[in-house]
Amino acid sequence: MTTATTTTPDDSSHAGDHWTPRLWGTLIVLCAALFLDALDISMVGIALPSIGSELHLSTSTLQWVVSGYVLGYGGLLLLGGRTADLLGRRRVFLTALGVFAAASLLGGLVDDGGLLIAARFLKGVAAAFTAPAGLSIITTTFPEGPARNRALSIYTTCGASGFSLGLVLSGLLTAVGWRWTFLMPVPIALLALIFAARLLPRQVEEKAAGRYDVLGAITGTSAVLLLVFTATEAQGAGWLSLRTLGSLAAVVLLVAAFLVIESRTAHPLVRLGIFRNGSVARANVIAFAMAGAYGGFQFVVTLYLQDLLGWSALAMALGLLPAGAMIALSAPFMGPVVDRFGTGRLLPIGLLALVGAFALFLRLDAHSSYPALVLPSIVLLGVGFALAFPSVNIAATDGVADEEQGLASGLVNTAIQVGTAVVLAGATAIITAGSGGGTGAEAQLDGYRPALLFVTGVALLGLVIAVAGAALDRRKKATPLPVPDYDYPSGGREDLAERRDGILSKN
């Protein structure tokens, strides 16, 4: 099925330096939705003890209050991104945002653990459609260049802010009652839905039969869902158990089947050729490493501060506030910074700051102070995410055609969610193995330190890829364009070489 997408005349969004109030409103609505998506990942964590106590949930069941959202979000992002391309980004965004609001309300009202987990899964599914639809609306509304860089910087920084500030809000709301961590997003989502219906550009789709890649959707979505599920459950079942190994083998088979299907179908869910774009391929691997390392780090820090140092949930949330504040305050300035220095420079610098933040925390002991240990890492964390998170999203959609922006958005968001699930599961397993089940300070530290080494290594992998990619891009730009070797009139070859060099010097 072929789909041609255009905007109606009432959309005057293709602006350069001057943005109309309607364009600003569109961006704010999309930022609000992404903020809520990211907020929901981190906000429920601090409320878990209160939820388990009131609803009488076991530890394994309580884990799924978090994992249910990640499973729905990470498992269906790829499908969500392609659905936005095929059915219309505006339509998909509005529908999914309405489902998100309804699921939030349900989660705050239920008194049954199973229904709560179902509500969380449904919210994750809704987020899997709003996130890539929103990102692709931005990349198709703002022309590539300074305008798009500015919009993406603001948009992605809002997402990072939601993830960071979720801990702070969770600490504040849990003090009132855990249900408010579920109910608070409802009015924001409803307001965003009302304004989105008025502001988002209306799209016209011309549909024909035969475009949907059903087999690709089934195998691809099943592979991602099973991978996230396996990584989440491996801690309880054991990484070398038959159950875990069998699930991983099934993931490999599903991925192999998916690749075969996508290489043979006329209209694939994921056009494999998109990975020939080096920027897109590298950005997805970097996003996996960056998000995964941060997810594992946050988990270790939460256990360390609350279980070992005895911090309250609110004190921990306030202690992490500087990173979220730095990310939020950087939003208006990142667009010009990206225009001036480029993602090729900013990504390595941001990832270097993240590696430094994780490595500095290796100095932890049973009596570490906030100024000496926590604050330096938190400051570097804020700097790293402020630089790297917008840059990786820009790189992941750079040079991609408008009709595949939903796909590119779905890919990078999938990399972020799957990276978080997989690296977090690995860090959890390392903590358990290192501590040996002990509850003393030294036993806990024996688990935390190797887990921190692991997440630092994952972030370092992302840094190496970013540096290599930047070097490759510089080499390509430095290589002169060849002058065709055939007979020219007198002076023709020299004149052509001079014109070529003049064009290159201007660019």
UniProtKB/TrEMBL annotation:
Transmembrane segments: 23-49, 61-80, 92-109, 121-142, 154-176, 182-200, 212-232, 244-262, 283-305, 311-334, 346-364, 370-389, 410-431, 451-472
Keywords noted in UniProt: Antibiotic resistance, Cell membrane, Membrane, Transmembrane, Transmembrane helix, Transport
Gene3D superfamilies tied to this protein: MFS general substrate transporter like domains, Multidrug resistance protein D
Annotated localization: Cell membrane
Membrane topology type: Multi-pass membrane protein
Domain of life: Bacteria
Region (Disordered): 479-507
Entry-linked InterPro entries: MFS, MFS_dom, MFS_trans_sf, Sugar_transporter_CS
Chief localization: membrane
Domain spans labelled Major facilitator superfamily (MFS) profile: 26-474
Transmembrane helix found in the keyword field: yes
Species of provenance: Kitasatospora misakiensis
The protein, known as: MFS transporter
PANTHER family: BLR6921 PROTEIN (PTHR42718:SF46), MAJOR FACILITATOR SUPERFAMILY MULTIDRUG TRANSPORTER MFSC (PTHR42718)
